[in-house]
C-alpha cells in the first residue's frame, strides 16, 4: 500500500507526525509506565494522597448541594445540580491525588502485561491502601460538614437532599449502575494519557455524564453516604451493605473487568 505522505515535503511530513494522535500501543505503554510508578510508591505517600482525595471529593457534594439550595423547584433543577458533581473530580484528578477507579485502574495494565502472583499482590496492596485512604478522608470531612457547623443549616439541607437520592435504589441497582461509572472513570486515565492538554474538559464532560445518567461512583457516593449517616438519615450497615460494597463491586467490574481488559486486549498482539 502506498504511503499517503509520499508526495509531501519533509516539513509537511513533520506536520503530519505532529498532528497524528498517539497510537493505542503508545498510550498503553504510557499508562503501563504510570502504573508501575504508582505500584512502587511508598505506603504513606499513597495513603495520604488518598485521604486528600477523599476530602477533596466532598466539593462535588458541596457544590451540588449549593445548586440544589439556590435553584427553584423546577423540572430542570436536577440537570443543573449535576454540574456540581465534576468539581471534586477536577480537584482530585488534575491534582494527581489517589482516587479509587481513576488512579488505581492504571495498575492493572502492568499486571495484564505480566500476570504473576507478585504483580497481583502489588495491585491488591495499591487498591487496599487507596480505598482505605479515600474512605478515611470522606468519613472525616462529612463528619465535619454534618456536625462542625462549617456551613449554614440551609446549605447542609441542600447537601443532604442531593445525597438522599442514594437511598432510592437497592444494593443490586447500585452495583449495576456502578459498572458504567467504573468504565467511564477508567477511560479518563486512558484519554488523558492520549492527550493530556484536554484534561480539564475530559474530566468535566465524563464526570458530568456520570451524574446526569445517575451512575454510582464508590468514592463520590461514599461522601454522600457518610453525610447521610452523620446527619442521622442512615446507619453504618446501610452505608457499607447497601452502597459501598455494591458500588465497589460495580466500579471494579466496569473499570477493571471491562475497560482495562479491553484496553489491553486491543494492543496485546502489538506489544
TrEMBL record:
Protein location: Membrane
Nuclease listed as a keyword: no
Residue ranges of the TM segments: 46-67, 79-99, 126-150, 171-191, 203-231, 243-265
Predominant place of localization: membrane
Keyword check for Transmembrane helix: yes
Its membrane topology: Multi-pass membrane protein
Assigned keywords, A-Z: Membrane, Transmembrane, Transmembrane helix
Gene Ontology molecular function terms on file: formate transmembrane transporter activity
Region (Disordered): 1-27
Assigned GO CC terms: plasma membrane
InterPro entries found in the cross-reference section: Aquaporin-like, For/NO2_transpt
Domain of life, per lineage: Bacteria
Protein name from the UniProt record: Transporter
Organism: Sphingomonas changbaiensis NBRC 104936
